Predict the structure.
Amino acid sequence: MERELTLMAVHAHPDDEVLGTGGVFARYAEEGIRTVLVTCTNGEQGDGPGGVKPGEPGHDEAAVRARRLEELNDSVTHLGIAHVELLGYRDSGMDGWEGNQARDAFANVPFEEAVGRLAALMEHYRPQVVVTYDENGNYGHPDHIQANRIALAAAEATGIPDKLYYTAVPRERVAELFAAMRAAGAAEIQDLPEDFGTPEELITTVVDVAPYAERKRKALQAHASQGDSIFLLKMPEEVQHRALSYEAFVRHFSRVTTPEREDDLFDGLRET
Ligand SMILES: [Zn+2]
């Protein structure tokens, strides 16, 4: 039986879908591949009105949740994502925040229960390709780490994905981009730590999404309440375009034969 080609990305918060996977969503959706976004939390620990942080006066979790889910809805429309599955867990907040302690925070919920829910979605959609974060959640956020853990466990339990990828921030390219931002007058841009991102030699897959850069920009704009997530929009247009026009990944496993370096997440899975 022929399986419909399907891409599933497992993300932690509303807005995470844009920078690392917005372009592959838009591109593959346009090619007729089924696209599924799983967002694990409601992003309650995000910014409130005027950028207020959790614990500060004026930060109302319910209002932040409602706002961010609306923004997600908007973003998904720009990216052309066909199916959105909300696991509805509570945002744990950044590493070290008080929100880490909440018993119902995503990072603290019973592991097997969360894996079971994701596994059921894998059974339902049967994605050949699954994308999530690396073991460190790309930058240490407890919810990103938990998303990685449940995605790996659900992939193993179901045996469904043929390929599983981690999103990657390519070290050398980002260093160049930051240099360009500074040259463009962004004096507040700091030097990056030397171990920032993933070294080029570990990146297996770079997908050209330049034709979708404008849609990614609109999707990012949809998340306007989250000042830190949309910092890129303050950069000159040329810099934005460069940052948005490719997406990089590290192939964690593949059950199909593929070249060492790919430019397509579905390499090895298409009918020839
Ligand atoms: Zn996130």
